[in-house]
């Protein structure tokens, strides 16, 4: 039947805060639909805060009103991230947010889409600048959530007496990959399959190269050393081996099928990951890792 005005309002809230993804929930299996609905209600404040602080420039989810709101609120969100709560910092952030919000409102109020602001060139400065702002705010959110995940994982490992390696390859690995797990399929459903597939490989590559480099660099600077010993444990060797073999298989299958991955290839991917998890868990439980 037709929804009441409260039901229509709730559907509108879900649509706005999920960037339209809630419209696709009805097509999911019942248990997934219920899980999405329950998790959305529990995480409603987080959804609202992210929507209000991360500029969105994707034409499919662009909203002039939300863009102005994100310009107003993002400077305050930066203060919260850096724990800068002094009166001067708050007043400065409010002034910057007001200026950004007013400027964006003036530039976009008569536009149906995001103006390019090419300044007489072929480069779209407007979307580029706002994309960088959105990326920066997204990084702050990811770092905040990752810190909380690490705290929860550490507490869980201490309470259950689990080996750190076992916790890392299960709870921490899954927790740190949830963004890609939900984001990449959503991107593929919107017609950006190549981008989503690239992100599946670029994400781990970024973690292994940039994140590890930044982590070791920070450690060296803090400890005043230029080298440190890293133990190459069996569980790490297993992960590296499985990843290398899987990438070789993906490349080989793609080359043998005219640069296409067969539809049923996901069965091999899931089986390969399940095998890795089982062996790694056995290594962790038996103390060999």
> How many beta-strand runs?
0
Helix percentage = over 70%
Order of helices and strands: HHHHHHHHHH
Mean pLDDT: 84
Enumerate how many helices there are, as a single number.
10
**SS-based structural class?**
mainly alpha
Largest sheet, described in full? none
Fold and architecture overview:
The protein is mainly alpha-helical and about 290 residues long. It has a domain at about 45-160. Helix content is about 75%, strand content about 0%. The chain contains ten helices and no strands. Helix 6 packs antiparallel against helix 7, helix 7 (about 165-190) packs antiparallel against helix 8 (about 195-225) and helix 9 (about 235-255) packs antiparallel against helix 10. The relative contact order is 0.05. Keywords: Ion transport, Membrane, Sodium, Sodium transport, Transmembrane, Transmembrane helix, Transport. One of its GO terms (molecular function) is monoatomic cation transmembrane transporter activity. It is a multi-pass membrane protein.
